Amino acid sequence: MNFMKKAWEHLDKPLWLASILIGGVLTLVVDKLPFVTRVVMVELVLILINGIFSIWSGYWIYKHQRKWSELFIFPILYLITAYFFMPRYTYYFALAYLALAYLSWAMRQQK
């Protein structure tokens, strides 16, 4: 029980919450809306919103001096949602999100 308490204290709650909302809930909702076409979904949500969020998450992890392993939170949550609810071609966006988060984190490391 002490381990769980310690883990909860060290958890970056804002990053996890935002990743769940953007990577899971937003992706699922946009996929299920009947008036959102696949093209709009890919352009607006998968490229623009999730791409910007990936860049933000890399910056957030650097700014708050979190561990580099937290770069995987958003891409993995997105991949789980995409695997169960979205077309196969959207799986590859998880790699792009990981790359964007890593680049925004790594570019800040060099300053």
Give the secondary structure arrangement, pairings included.
Blueprint: H1 2-10, H2 13-32, H3 38-63, H4 73-85, H5 93-109
Helix pairs in contact: 2-3, 2-4, 3-5, 4-5
Give a written overview of the molecule.
The chain is an all-alpha fold and 111 residues long. It is built from five helices and no strands. The radius of gyration is 15 Å and the shape is globular. The N and C termini lie far apart (40 Å). The mean pLDDT is 87.
| H/E element sequence | HHHHH
How many beta-strand elements? 0
Rg value: 15 Å
Low-confidence stretches: none
Structural class: mainly alpha
Shape: globular
Fraction of residues in β-strands:
under 5%
Percent in helix: over 70%
| CA-CA gap between termini | 40 Å
Protein name: Integral membrane protein
Keywords: Membrane, Transmembrane, Transmembrane helix
Organism: Limosilactobacillus balticus
